[in-house]
Amino acid sequence: MKVLLVGDGAREHAMAEALANSPQGYRVYALSSYVNPGIREAVNRTGGKYVQGNINSREDVAKAIREFNPDFGVVGPEDPLFHGIADEFRRNGIPVVGPNRAGAEIERSKVWMRQLMWKYKIDGRLRFRSFTSLEEASRFIVEYGGSVAVKPAEQVGGKGVKVVADIQAYLSNEKRRALSKSVDEIGSLVKNEVKIIIEEKVDGPEYTLHVLTDGHTFLPLPLAQDYKHAYQDGIGPETGGMGSVSGPGRLLPFITEEEYEKTLKIVQDTARAIREETGEPYRGFISGQMMLTELWGPTVIEFYSRMGDPETSAIIPRISSDFGYLLQLTAEEKLSQAKLEVREDPTVVRAIAPLGYPLRREMATGKEIFLDVNSMREKGCLVYFGSVSYEGGKLITRGSRALELVAFGDFEEASRKLDTCTKMISANTELVYRTDIGRTLGEQAEKAEIVRYSYQNRIRRNSLGVSADWAPNGGLW
Questions:
Q1: What letter would DSSP give residue 335?
Q2: Where would I find the ATP-grasp domain in this sequence (predicted)?
């Protein structure tokens, strides 16, 4: 059976390897914008074919479909989904993992997502306002007295989020003026008319639940947590993710079984609302980027229309059942036949990037990187290739996160393995990574307990999700 994978990062490498290792005997074909060495290995091992092209182009995808005649497809990244690549598979009669363009709006537009949650009264929703005028957004920030999160109104690769918390009242005006100056910068990231979304700020530990659905059945995967900030101890600019953790079991150390089930219901309710709103079934991954807050308990920060990266690298190795077959069942709308088995032991993922990432990607581009994957496996680390191109037998960086290293074990043990394997990587530039990933979960568990006490009190008082009118005029928006 032939499968066509669209995408070129570490997430797609993990998927390609899962497909190549499947007992189903898949032949893996791939369309990427560059030759990812990990995907290339999976393609060659299974007797498939690798082609380069524009992964956002329906024409290039249609050409690959005609050439390879796959039995099903898998679309990895979000941008191809926003451009209707899953629609192109279905237009050609090919089952595919990935929502149609209309369904992918749940990730592309934060405003559409928030409006949907309010319209269908889905738990975990936040108050918000959206702005087409950057001047009006700046004025709102200065005039409004509460804590806010300011975000670009559409998906821009995890960039541009700013937060102000008025814990110290005497700093309020200075902080607000500083934040209002960031509005032009944030708005410049957005191409559409609606530029800025401002949400009420909430606080608590974050986590992600990825759910596979074929439009009928929902299959929740183990939780993961992403580490967004570029530098040690969670400081610096936000990135696509500098690492992640998953486990033990299907939970995380700071999330309970009840909170997992509540999160799953939120994701299911959202997928059903998308179907109601668009008239089309949602098929593929729908992933809730959540925060445990005193307002709701499980609270939605945003949704993904695909698997997160680097969360994928933490999750797929922990699935002991045939993940490739789960993808096939999803594409063919037979997910009710699926059986999910998850390893108990956790994983820790560490992303490795060239110096310059994320703010000066031109500096991080075109560097040669050196590693021995087999030796690293002997030390207990898996390696997924991200923004690295295979060029004439060399591994050349492309400006983003180059590698994702994965280790099993309790969180401290896995981190020590990653310390060892990181030393086995070299490049003709300095490498950037975080060593604290997986080593601060005790602090997050303490924070979760404080939040849990507060939101459970709200449940007892029947005030879950209730707060004072948020906007200056007394309205929600």
A1: G
A2: 115-332
